TrEMBL record:
Enzyme class (EC, first level): ligase
Gene Ontology cellular-component annotations: cytosol
Location(s), subcellular: Cytoplasm
Chief localisation class: cytoplasm
Residues spanned by motif 'KMSKS' region: 206-210
Stated family: Belongs to the class-I aminoacyl-tRNA synthetase family.
Protein name: Tryptophan--tRNA ligase
Pfam families for this protein: tRNA-synt_1b (PF00579)
């Protein structure tokens, strides 16, 4: 069976977004809006798998919404909404909790990392997080999911859940629908080189909103002066910039800054490396600052402006949630009928 192409992605409202979120995800989303039907979700239900201060969760949900819009997503073309406002996510997640196997969840590296040594004390929600993520995608029968490397394992689990559901309920699927398969196998959607932005203080660590040093990251709402200052302070090494032949062996910071330049300029990294080979960091940083300010400052200005109008952001989410529910509800109803629930 073929399914119409549909894109789904989600961002957690758990803190200010960084350049990593922007280059790795948000800035790419607008590339899809003319090609596919797209749903972009603020996954507030995923956020509470780790305790969130309610006031902050509320503000951060509007913050991610503002970031979607500031990154160029048009709310008329895309469905922008928050997860908890569409009940079908939770309903589908329950069905999927009963399809997924404990052994599958036990293999999830993100759970192991997030639960750490205190596994017994992690929330049950954190453990079944991937089945909620599968529900997010499959309750719309989304076929394409823009995700970074860290979410690939969860997407594979969503494929396994889809396949097992299709298999376990094959008889009712065949009699109640004309098709052989009820859920598609969602595929990762990554155009161009996957961008992993590393910390400005330690090129071996991912740029993270939870790093105690604010100088380790560029936040999406940093103003031009802050961006410039953080690039100036970014860690480098004393040598000139390498050419491709020298490689980046042991020079993670140099590689990261060149990668950021390439992503901002939307140029292949090789071209950027060739252009700056042999130059000093002081020179390169000037160019990088200019480019970063030119591309990021308009986004951050717009983000700050939008955050000043929470009423508008709430109405975007409400309208988006209604459109999302209109797609999800019939699929959820059919799922219930397939499972054998009375009333569906
Ligand atoms: N788990 C994703 C992350 O932390 C967020 C997410 C939730 C998501 N549901 C999704 C991403 C569905 C893609 C599709 O980055």
């Amino acid at each position: 069976m073929s399914f119409p192409e549909r894109v789904f992605s989600g961002v957690q409202p758990t803190g200010t977004l960084t350049l990593g979120n922007y280059l790795g995800a948000l800035s790419r989303f607008s590339d899809y809006q003319d090609k596919y039907e797209c749903l972009y979700c603020v996954v507030d239900m995923h956020a509470i798998t780790m305790w969130q201060d309610p006031k902050e969760l509320h503000a951060n949900t509007l913050g991610v919404t503002a970031a979607y819009l500031a990154s160029g997503l048009d709310p008329a073309k895309n469905i922008i909404f928050n997860q908890s406002q569409v009940a079908a996510h939770a309903e589908m997640a329950w069905v999927f909790n009963c399809v997924t196997r404990i052994g599958w969840l036990n293999r999830m590296t993100q759970f192991k990392e997030k639960a750490g040594k205190h596994r017994e004390n992690a929330s049950a929600g954190l453990y079944v997080y991937p089945s909620l993520m599968a529900a997010d995608i499959l309750v719309y029968r989304a076929t394409h999911v823009p995700v970074g490397d860290d979410q690939k394992q969860h997407l594979e689990l969503a494929r396994d859940i889809a396949q097992k559901f299709n298999h376990d309920y094959a008889d009712t699927i065949r009699t109640q629908t004309n098709g052989e398969e009820f859920f598609p196998q969602p595929e990762p959607l990554i155009e161009g080189p996957a961008m992993r932005v590393m910390s400005l203080r330690d090129g071996t660590k991912k740029m993270s909103k939870s790093d105690p040093s604010d100088n380790s990251r560029i936040n999406m709402d940093d103003d031009a002066d802050t961006i410039a200052q953080k690039i100036r302070k970014a860690k480098t090494d004393p040598d000139a910039l390498p050419s491709l032949e020298d490689g980046f062996e042991g020079r993670a910071e140099a590689e990261n800054l060149l990668g950021i330049y390439a992503a901002l300029a939307k140029e292949p990294k090789n071209d950027v490396v060739t252009r700056f080979a042999g130059q000093q960091f002081s020179e390169f940083k000037k160019e990088l600052t200019e480019l970063a300010v030119e591309t990021l400052a308009p986004v951050s200005n717009e983000l700050v402006r939008l955050k000043g109008d929470p009423g508008h952001l709430e109405s975007v989410l409400k309208a988006g949630s209604e459109r999302a529910a209109a797609i999800a509800e019939p699929i959820m109803k059919q799922t219930k009928a397939i499972v054998g629930f009375v009333g569906a």
